[in-house]
Recover the amino acids of this structure.
């Protein structure tokens, strides 16, 4: 399988989750191209300063449109990720939301209460691989 995957995660407020982002992006590469691989880059915030907010918005929205799947790590609340998830639903992209249950956070009711999104809680990010694989297989088997 070789699909374009849009990975979303809090950038300006979520750098504490960067190791989870790095692991998830590497895991997602088994299924295709991760268009937003830069989210796990150690120099992300410095590199993003070279772009205007409008350039970041337009670039990311183009990647979102190009994707066939959206995977979001939503443990750290983010207005940007919420916007991306709404856009993904509007574009009818399959959306998988992952969140760490050990940090005491609960997903926003606006995300958890929307049946369009598939939510998966985890305690160790490494336990998500099989669940991600099952979701991808189920989602793309249904589309063929």
């Amino acid at each position: 399988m070789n699909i374009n995957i849009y990975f979303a995660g809090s950038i300006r407020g979520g750098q504490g989750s960067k190791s989870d982002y790095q692991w998830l992006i590497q895991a997602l590469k088994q299924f295709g191209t991760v268009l937003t691989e830069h989210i796990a880059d150690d120099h992300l915030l410095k590199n993003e300063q070279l772009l205007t907010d409008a350039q970041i918005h337009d670039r990311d929205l183009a990647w979102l449109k190009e994707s066939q799947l959206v995977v979001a790590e939503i443990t750290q609340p983010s207005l940007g990720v919420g916007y991306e998830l709404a856009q993904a639903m509007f574009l009818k992209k399959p959306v998988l939301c992952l969140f760490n249950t050990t940090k005491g956070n609960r997903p926003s009711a606006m995300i958890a209460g929307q049946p369009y999104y598939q939510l998966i809680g985890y305690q160790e990010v490494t336990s998500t691989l099989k669940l991600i694989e099952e979701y991808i297989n189920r989602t793309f088997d249904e589309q063929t």
Summary: The beta strands are 3-9, 32-34, 69-73, 95-100, 118-122. The longest helix spans residues 129-143.
